[in-house]
Write a structure and sequence with these properties.
The chain is α/β, with parallel strands linked by helices. It is built from 17 helices and 21 strands. It has a domain of 103 residues. Strand 1 and strand 2 form a beta hairpin. Helix 6 crosses helix 7 and helix 8 runs parallel beside helix 15. It comes from Curtobacterium pusillum. This is Amidohydrolase family protein.
């Protein structure tokens, strides 16, 4: 058994209360907050952090993260902590290492999640154990429904039989019993898109029984189909009694606000995560290819384009898909930027739009995309620009809804990632809190407390005596996102001291190399594994 960490005193910072900010000392001992107040009796050997004009906030929770396999990388740790993120929720979009041996997720989502370096099977319990004492941040996971379906049906496009459904329910039930926070679907990815509403509702009965959360990347995209996706989630809620959460809600603001308000009044309340950027990011295969060609591996695509008639058919299918999307349309090749391209021949194209890359290589955007996908085994990530970016004022009504939780959808793979991976939480503070669109109590709820409550992450998400001491010290005069679309990997500024379980993990802006993070388990007492 390791010795307890020395006590830490956060001296004189601002602590957010319901009615404003009060100056107080925060004493941390044995991983929890021991005292909040003035005139604190400080034990001998206590480490002191002078907060000055800075604020002491609960650690931020990234409600939708793709860093679960990369969180062992110090550059990723630094990128998270400089934003104040102390906990991430993984297993998103229906794809993740467990259950199974991790090979399906590595093969399909390597361009989004990266391969997990330590998990080789054993289920959710074994996956969560890889994070215990090995990383400076906490990691929770969902049971990924696409991975579950793959374990039972492979990538087959067919309805699940009653026996298939029971086998999937068993896997979901086991994952929840081992500490998963809920179930995640990715209904635009293979094989999740083959699951019908009844199948999903059956799986969600297990989630409801465990008081887990159903988290859904909705079916059929967002911009032009958000209401249909929300209605399907509502149907699943009514059929199973599950609590529901919408992943990376990206839709016309008025439509989203009206729909969520109406569904809540009709008995299907939903929380959701969103990020303060207009551009999206995903794998190029899902964006361009018909589902039958977007399955993991390149065999289907290589076979389809092996002769000129086949390539002509695939080109037509690609154009039909992109021209039919409300967020792309006729200028689609100018709106898609190559983010991660592992194929050596095309590696230099990262950071260019498909139109620019096609011009540089003397080819057509569709042909270039197909060649890049084949040579990269489909492991290509892109950033998508939208025709009209929404301003902070336009997005604020959506973010003000009580069910909103901050989620970066951050992807750390590649040399030119979306800047949301390194900037989301600082940008919330910069664009919404500091200009007064959010008050500080509202900020704490959206960036920390709501996710803690929805995902059942234990006694954290607040600065009060007895709470787990995941804490962030924020300089409101300096905090800002450093990342941009041009320089997406620059760290945030204004957050230089962070504690996890009472242990300093970021000090003066640098990693301390302490690893007090844990794989957070959901359990009936809500202790989050501590």
């Amino acid at each position: 058994m390791t010795d307890p960490a020395p006590a830490v005193l956060l001296r004189g910072g601002g602590v957010v209360a319901d009615d404003g900010i009060v100056r107080a000392d925060v004493l941390v001992a044995d991983g929890r907050i021991a005292t909040v107040g003035t005139g604190v009796d400080v034990p001998a050997g206590t480490r002191t952090i002078d907060c000055g004009e800075r604020l002491v906030l609960p650690g931020f929770v990234d409600a939708h993260s793709h860093a679960g396999s990369l969180v062992f990388d110090e550059a990723v740790q630094h990128g998270l902590l400089r934003q104040g993120v102390t906990t991430i929720v993984t297993g998103q979009d229906g794809v993740g290492p467990a259950p199974g041996d991790g090979s399906y997720a590595d093969r399909y989502f390597a361009a989004i999640d990266g391969p997990h370096p330590r998990y080789r099977g054993g289920g959710v319990d074994a996956l969560l154990a890889t994070y215990d004492g090995t990383t400076p941040v906490n990691v929770a996971t969902l049971v990924p429904a696409g991975t579950v379906r793959h374990e039972v049906l492979g990538d087959d496009d067919r309805p699940a039989t009653p026996a298939d459904v029971e086998a999937m329910r068993s896997l979901v039930r086991r994952g929840l019993s081992e500490g998963a926070t809920g179930l995640a679907t990715g209904l635009d990815y293979v094989p999740g898109l083959y699951a019908d509403t009844a199948e999903l509702a059956a799986l969600c009965t297990e989630v409801a029984a465990a008081d887990g959360l159903y988290v859904s990347h909705m079916r059929g995209g967002y911009e032009g189909n958000a209401r249909a996706g929300l209605d399907e989630i509502a149907e699943i809620v009514r059929a199973s009694g599950v609590r529901a959460h919408v992943s990376h809600l990206h839709a016309p603001v008025e439509l989203a606000v009206d729909a969520l308000t109406e569904l809540a009044a009709a008995g299907a309340p939903m929380s959701f995560d969103a990020y303060p950027y207009s551009r999206g990011c995903t794998i190029l295969s899902m964006l361009l290819l018909p589902a039958e060609l977007a399955r993991p591996g390149t065999e289907d695509l290589v076979r389809a384009v092996s002769d000129e008639p086949g390539r002509h058919r695939v080109r037509g299918a690609v154009l039909e898909r992109v021209l039919g999307r409300a967020d792309l349309g006729t200028g689609w090749a100018d709106q898609i930027t190559l983010s991660h391209v592992p194929a050596a021949e095309f590696h230099a194209l990262q950071g260019r739009t498909l139109a620019e890359a096609a011009a540089a290589t003397g080819t057509d955007p569709v042909d270039l995309a197909l060649d890049v996908l084949v040579d990269s085994a489909l492991q290509v990530t892109v950033v998508m620009r939208v025709p009209r970016p929404r301003t902070a004022d336009e997005l604020a009504p959506l973010f003000r809804l009580p069910g909103h939780a901050a989620g970066s959808d951050g992807i750390f793979v590649g040399t030119h990632p979306h800047p949301r991976a390194y900037g989301t939480f600082a940008r919330y503070l910069e664009d919404y809190t500091l200009p007064g669109r959010f008050g500080w109590p509202e900020t704490v709820r959206h960036l920390s407390t709501t996710s803690v409550e929805r995902y059942r992450l234990g006694d954290r998400g607040t600065v009060r005596v007895g709470a787990i001491a995941d804490l962030v010290v924020v300089d409101p005069a300096r905090v800002a996102a450093g990342s941009s679309y041009e320089r997406p990997m620059r760290p945030a500024v204004g957050i230089e001291d962070v504690l996890v379980a009472g242990v300093p993990v970021l000090a003066d802006g640098a990693l301390t190399h302490a690893t007090p993070g844990a794989g957070l388990r959901r359990d009936g007492s809500g202790t989050g594994g501590r």
